[in-house]
From TrEMBL:
Compartment(s) of residence: Cell membrane; Membrane
Transmembrane segments: 24-45, 60-81, 102-130, 136-160, 172-190, 226-248
Keyword Membrane: yes
Keyword Transmembrane helix attached: yes
UniProt entry keywords in alphabetical sequence: Antibiotic resistance, Cell membrane, Membrane, Transmembrane, Transmembrane helix, Transport
Domain ABC transmembrane type-2: 25-251
Membrane topology: Multi-pass membrane protein
The protein's name: Transport permease protein
Cited InterPro entries: ABC2_TM (IPR013525), ABC2_TM_bact-type (IPR047817), ABC_2_transport (IPR000412), Nod_factor_ABC_transporter (IPR051784)
PANTHER family, per the entry: NODULATION PROTEIN J (PTHR43229:SF2)
């Protein structure tokens, strides 16, 4: 991005962040469901689940963090839809600003707000018994994977927000994404599943992302999972970005 685009994006980010800070209940709402899943699986189902681990909270955390991000990006689609319907985009496009900065403002707001949600959930996880001896490089790698996952889902949210015909439609796309961790290695090993379910679980993006984060936090070899996870995140981001920009150009043309 040029200097002009970067400065315009900063202004759009500041505008969107004001909406977040004025309604902190959004972040609270986003974190409630993942925290509920964490506590439910840890204290209700945990004793009956065989995950071949001494600390089931550690096993749960990667999947819970992905659910939190999937929940949070639904608000990006909703906010973007409201801007489109309210005529804000038309006003911005009449000003001498970079057109892409309007979308990037929403995207970066999603990154910041989801990062806050992740920090809150990790704090709750620590209270529930989550522990990690991973060093700074491993934590940075985890943060990088979560960032890429957030960007991938956020651009899907942007596409939904631009294409939806109702506020519910702008956020409903997130429900299948929230459900994906339940058919992955997030809560139980895939080899405990029926063959057809296991085949799907082992070949969808959440499993490789969860396995990579879990291995990094446990200071274990990551193997090919991290490359598969990065390929999924990068591929989804590129496709969603291209489609979102095409939809955006159609809307403002």
């Amino acid at each position: 991005m040029t200097t002009h685009t970067i400065s315009d994006t900063g202004v759009m980010l500041g505008r969107s962040m004001k909406h977040i800070t004025r309604s902190l209940d959004t972040i609270i709402t986003v974190t409630i469901m993942p925290i509920a899943f964490l506590l439910l699986f840890r204290y209700v189902f945990g004793g009956a689940i065989q995950a071949n681990t001494d600390n089931y909270t550690n096993y749960l955390m990667p999947g819970v963090l992905l659910i939190a991000i999937a929940s949070g990006i639904s608000y990006t689609g909703f906010r973007l839809f409201n801007d489109m319907q309210g005529g804000i985009f038309e006003r911005f496009n009449s000003m001498p600003i970079a057109r892409s900065s309007v979308l990037w403002g929403h995207v970066l707001t999603s990154v910041v707000s989801n990062a806050l949600s992740v920090v809150i959930i990790i704090g709750i996880g620590l209270l529930a018994g989550f522990r990690s001896s991973a060093g700074v490089p491993a934590w940075l790698a985890v943060a990088g994977i979560l960032l890429l996952f957030t960007l991938a889902l956020t651009w899907i949210a942007v596409l939904a927000g631009l294409s939806a015909s109702s506020p519910d439609g702008a956020s409903a796309f997130s429900y299948p994404i929230i459900f994906l961790p339940f058919i992955s290695s997030a809560f139980v090993p895939t080899d405990t599943m029926p063959a057809a379910v296991a085949a799907f679980a082992e070949n969808q993006p959440v499993t490789s992302i969860v396995n990579s984060i879990r291995a990094l936090l446990a200071e274990q070899p990551v193997g090919n999972d991290i490359w598969i996870a990065l390929a999924w995140c990068a591929g989804i981001t590129i496709v969603a970005y291209v489609l979102a920009m095409l939809a955006y150009r159609r809307k403002i043309s």
